[in-house]
Amino acid sequence: MPTIDITREVCPMTYVRVKLAVEALEDGATLEVILRGHEPLTNVPRSAVEEGHEVLSLLQLEDGTSKLTLRVHH
Q1: 54-60 and 30-35: which strand pairing?
Q2: CA–CA separation, 28 vs 41, rounded Å?
Q3: What is the 3-class SS of 1-67, one letter each residue?
Q4: Which residue among 36, 51, 53, 63 sits deepest, i.e. has the most Cβ atoms within 10 Å of its Cβ?
Q5: Which residues are part of the catalytic machinery?
Q6: What is the number of other CB atoms lying within 10 angstroms of the CB of residue 67?
Q7: Which of helix, strand or coil describes residue 68?
Q8: What is the CATH classification number for the domain harbouring 40?
Q9: What is the DSSP letter of 74?
Q10: Angstrom distance (rounded) from CA 9 to CA 28
Q11: How many domains does the chain have?
């Protein structure tokens, strides 16, 4: 499963990076996104759902980051 780390990005680049990664994947594929901060934690899952993708999980990790797992739908 591909993973991207957007912990160093700021909005709106956080979702731009996710969108580019999603576009490279086939329908039904999964993508893990490592993110940090309140704004990306709120905006990235919401934007993904608005574009028709499915949030499979959103987990808080011990290092203060979060891991979002998406299922891609084109």
Answers
A1: unpaired
A2: 22
A3: CCEEECCCCCCCHHHHHHHHHHHCCCCCCEEEEEECCHHHHHHHHHHHHHCCCEEEEEEECCCCCEE
A4: 53
A5: 11
A6: 14
A7: strand
A8: 3.30.110.40
A9: -
A10: 26
A11: 1
Of the candidates 29, 64, 62, 11, the residue with the CA atom closest to the CA atom of residue 21:
29
Tokens of 16: 């731009």
Domain of 19 in residue numbering reads as 3-71
Asked if residue 12 has pLDDT above 90, the reply is no
Query: pLDDT tens, 19-61?
Result: 999 999 999 999 999 999 999 999 999 999 999 999 999 999 9
- For residue 13, how many other CB atoms are within 10 A of its CB? 12
